[in-house]
Amino acid sequence: MPIIDIINLIINSTTAIATVVAIPATIVYSARQTRRTFAKDDERRSYDLYQTMLKQASRVDVWESKTSWKDKQKEGSDEHLIITNHSEGTIRQVSILVHWDLLKNSHLRPIKLTNNTINYYRVPGFGHHHAWRTLPTADWIISMDPDSRFTWSLPTICPGNIFESPRFLDKNDPQDRCRLNAVAIKFTDVYGNIWERLFESEYLPKDHAAGLHLLYSPDDRLAEFCKPKGIIPE
User: Fold this and answer.
1) Cα 154–Cα 68–Cα 170 angle in degrees, nearest 5
2) CA distances from 96 to 81, 123, 181, 187, 201 (A)
């Protein structure tokens, strides 16, 4: 066999062997790239889902109100809690944590949090009822009577003769009594996600950050966004 043919045979054989070796490597590399792409797509979809759920949960809020009322004989004002549920459906297992000096003489049992000496109180908090079972989409008013057996009223939709206004300042009243302060609200949304919103306040424990936090989700895709523990006791 001529030398040139031998050289060509060697070259062709080497090329064939290199091709055979390269094919599995290319397949492995492609598979890895595909897995990475799918993983990034899954992360993006999970994040988008979390943002969608967060947007809905952010439409649930609670704030303190100085509510004026009047009828034909008299008029006055009281402090209330206003719960706004503007999400896409009914929220469930709703409870609120508050601080208010007037509750010292109520029938409610104070709640002590770790590394904190302040007395907190749960709304509704009477007996074994630690949460409102359901709150459909609406604005709800909760009033307080420290001398009443149950202290907190059932949530009611604002009647026509009550005019609600947010309390704009945090200063105490002239008698230097602490005003009603909402510290946190916890609820379950229509998808079964449990949320807790903490409010910026001097009564918020220092080891907690204000904001809206996801505590639990039945959807495994949201597991990485869940916080380990909330502030409102079970």
Assistant:
1) 90
2) 10, 5, 10, 9, 15
Helical ranges in the chain per DSSP H: 3-57
- The answer to whether the Cα torsion of 37, 38, 41, 42 is positive or negative is negative
CB-count burial class (<10 Å; 0-12, 13-18, 19+) for 119: middle
**pTM, whole model, 2 decimals?**
0.76
DSSP string across 100-142: -GGGGGSSPPPBPPTT----BEEES-BTTB-SEEEE-SEEEEE
* C-alpha 87: how far from chain center: 12
**184 in Cβ contact with 97 (< 8 Å):** yes
Mean pLDDT by groups of 10 residues along the chain of 234 residues: 55 54 60 62 88 96 80 74 93 92 77 80 74 92 74 80 63 57 94 95 86 96 90 83
Q: How far apart are CA 229 and CA 184, in angstroms?
A: 13
Which residue is it, tokens 């505590």? 215
